[in-house]
Automatic annotation (TrEMBL):
<keyword id="KW-0547">Nucleotide-binding</keyword>
<keyword id="KW-0820">tRNA-binding</keyword>
<feature type="domain" description="DUS-like FMN-binding">
    <location>
        <begin position="17"/>
        <end position="316"/>
    </location>
</feature>
<comment type="function">
    <text>Catalyzes the synthesis of 5,6-dihydrouridine (D), a modified base found in the D-loop of most tRNAs, via the reduction of the C5-C6 double bond in target uridines.</text>
</comment>
<dbReference type="GO" id="GO:0000049">
    <property type="term" value="F:tRNA binding"/>
</dbReference>
<comment type="similarity">
    <text>Belongs to the dus family.</text>
</comment>
<dbReference type="InterPro" id="IPR001269">
    <property type="entry name" value="DUS_fam"/>
</dbReference>
<feature type="active site" description="Proton donor">
    <location>
        <position position="104"/>
    </location>
</feature>
<dbReference type="InterPro" id="IPR024036">
    <property type="entry name" value="tRNA-dHydroUridine_Synthase_C"/>
</dbReference>
<feature type="binding site">
    <location>
        <position position="143"/>
    </location>
    <ligand>
        <name>FMN</name>
    </ligand>
</feature>
<keyword id="KW-0285">Flavoprotein</keyword>
<keyword id="KW-0694">RNA-binding</keyword>
<feature type="binding site">
    <location>
        <begin position="228"/>
        <end position="229"/>
    </location>
    <ligand>
        <name>FMN</name>
    </ligand>
</feature>
<dbReference type="Pfam" id="PF01207">
    <property type="entry name" value="Dus"/>
</dbReference>
<dbReference type="InterPro" id="IPR035587">
    <property type="entry name" value="DUS-like_FMN-bd"/>
</dbReference>
<keyword id="KW-0521">NADP</keyword>
<keyword id="KW-0560">Oxidoreductase</keyword>
């Protein structure tokens, strides 16, 4: 796949699957690939952990053929460490490209002067991007926000930075760091960026949960849209949006439970605490059905695979 080809895929699909911490693991990506063959990202990976070759961190960059096309998302604050991290990824994983997390608002990440903290340190952000560009000839992207708060918006400066430093893709979550994941999306900022951009592929992000919200964001002029939290609860959302169908009813309840059974198998071979994740996915996927509130209470008291399977079978029968 050529560098240009990945950009063509993004512009053709108009959809991208976001990096989601704790979610976009190899097992979950296998499920997503049933409904989406476009660009997906790994969960965010510590550049420092990669540099020190921590086994748990290296596990994050394990890529299977089914994952492709895929970008590895890194986070960190030291430009030299970011450079080394990408070189390590090139040797061990060779993804289609790399993304810098410059938007995560979680305290732990910000305390490390990474993620959204970089919105307050554009000089360091510039140096990080320069080193990303030096480390690889593959496409690089930056995922960020509009600014730290509404009194310190920096999205136009970041666009200029990306244009000048050879960034291929800029993804903007159209909120500030202080707005976190609540409040209205600032569509005017996305429209402004779409007008100003020259060579960068612009991806919009934030609160796209169906075809209606997808269309509203596309109208701003962005090249594509990154689906985030909505797809961790409904990985079939990509097909539902493409065909303008209701997300909840796109699959039957039986199909959703079959997917949970597949995910259980994938998770079981991936990590020891797989039951914890199947509980979470069961609650997410089955929300809105009769008895889903009771299911949530019950399933979090379950500790065995057999009980999980039995509970899901009973839930299906209850809704038949």
């Amino acid at each position: 796949m050529t560098d240009k080809h990945i950009i063509e895929i993004i512009k053709k699909d108009k959809l991208v699957a976001a990096p989601l911490a704790g979610v976009t693991t190899p097992p979950f990506r296998k499920i997503v690939r049933k409904f989406f063959d476009g660009l997906i990202y790994t969960e965010m990976v510590s550049a420092e952990g990669l540099k020190r070759k921590v086994k748990a961190t290296l596990d994050y960059i394990k890529i299977q053929p089914i994952d492709r096309p895929i970008f590895i998302q890194v986070f960190g604050s030291n430009p030299d460490t970011i450079y080394e991290a990408i070189k390590i990824c090139e040797d061990l994983a060779s993804p289609e490209g790399y993304d810098l997390n410059a938007g995560c608002p979680v305290k732990k990440v910000i305390k490390a002067n990474a993620g959204s903290y970089l919105l307050k340190d554009l000089n360091n952000l510039t140096n990080i991007i320069k080193n990303m560009r030096k480390a690889t000839d593959k496409p690089i992207s930056v995922k960020t926000r509009l600014g730290w708060d509404y009194n310190s918006l920096v999205y136009k400066e970041i666009l200029n930075m990306c244009e000048n430093e050879g960034v291929d893709i800029l993804t903007i979550h159209a909120r500030t760091k202080t707005e976190m994941f609540s409040g209205d999306i600032h569509f005017d900022a996305l429209s402004e960026l779409a007008t100003l951009k020259k060579n960068v592929t612009l991806i919009g992000n934030g609160n796209v949960v169906d075809k209606t919200s997808f269309d509203k964001m596309i109208e701003t002029g962005v090249d594509a849209i990154m689906i985030g939290r909505a797809y961790m609860k409904a990985p079939w959302i990509f097909q539902a949006i493409k065909h303008n169908l209701d997300i909840h009813n796109f699959l039957t309840l039986k199909q959703k439970i079959n997917i949970l059974m597949e995910l259980l198998t994938f998770e079981k071979s991936f990590r020891r605490n797989y039951i914890d994740f199947i509980r979470k996915y069961s609650v997410w996927f089955l929300k809105g059905y009769k008895g889903s509130t009771e299911l949530r209470k019950k399933i979090y008291k379950i500790n065995t695979e057999q009980e999980i399977v039995k509970t899901l079978e009973e839930f299906l029968e209850q809704n038949s």
